[in-house]
Amino acid sequence: MIFNDFFIQFGYPQAWQMIIPAVLIAFIIRKLWHKPIIYKYSLGHVLHAKSQYKKPLPLVLFDFLRLAVVTLLALLLFEPKIIDKRSQLPLDGIDIVLVLDVSGSMQFMDYDDQKKSRIEVAKEEAIRFISARNNDAVGLVIFGNDAVSRCPITIDKRILKKMINDLYIGVVDSEGTVLARAIITAANRLKDAPSTNKVMIVLTDGEPSVQDLDINIAIKVAKDIGIKIYTVGIGSEKEEFFMHPFYGVVQKPKVNASLLGHIAHETGGQFFMARNATDMRKVYDTIDKLETTAHQVPVFGIYYDLLLPLGGVAFGMVFLYGIFSTLIWFVL
Fold first, then answer.
1. Which string of DSSP letters, residue by residue, matches 165-198?
2. At 290, is the pLDDT very low, low, confident or very high (cuts 50, 70, 90)?
3. Which CATH number fits domain 95-291: 3.40.50.410, 3.10.129.10, 3.50.50.60, 3.20.20.30?
4. Exposed end of the chain (fewer CB within 10 Å): N or C?
């Protein structure tokens, strides 16, 4: 076995946050309340003065077993695994970042084929799209009046889908649409991605806010990195109105189709309009046919979970401690 071909990975490296307080509490309790058992013998002070006393070997063995068991149990909290470096898998895939608008206007329920809000349909179709991209690394950026990188580029689809499913209006400041900042945030995630095929999918339903950056700055950043942007307008590019319970007749945010088309054209992508849930699904199905490229990702096919071996060793030491404490007690 060549040790350079293996490394240890911890599934729960945050375990030290529990271990350190527990050790400190145990230390304090022992210092304040523990009182060792003292045996007094006649002429004991004479033996001590002549340095003829030494700790019996069985007691040293007990101390070692106790320390070893505690150390192993603490190590198990980190969920250690041995990974075989030689089992790294080459996957055919691309690096994608979803950029989702979570501004206040995304709560409108204007899809005729489904009684769901824009954000609900966008979330459902995004999850369906991610489920179909088995070999692709996908990240998530959300934006309203702020742009936030919600999830780095990852192949862990389970955690990514959970993050998307947990999105709601108000998770970031919803009073605005900083489209350019969101694109730059997503580009920052893609700049160091290993794939040569970098894709960004931007979904929005309105005009950028006044305080947003110049969109041409975001386009230049994306082009310099080599990112292809697919833009999706949610809702309608026409003027529409709705009855607000407090303000009466209010105009809905209108999709700036020309701006989204400009972003897609300049970066080599495409612009889509999703006027209903069916359109949204067709958009993702079209993007799903993207060209792929082979690249190495940190996925390994062979790993050895150390939970059972280390747990077995700890149990064996506890068993030996019980046996020795029963048998050796009579010879002390």
1. HT--TTSS--S---HHHHHHHHHHHHTT-S-S-E
2. low
3. 3.40.50.410
4. N
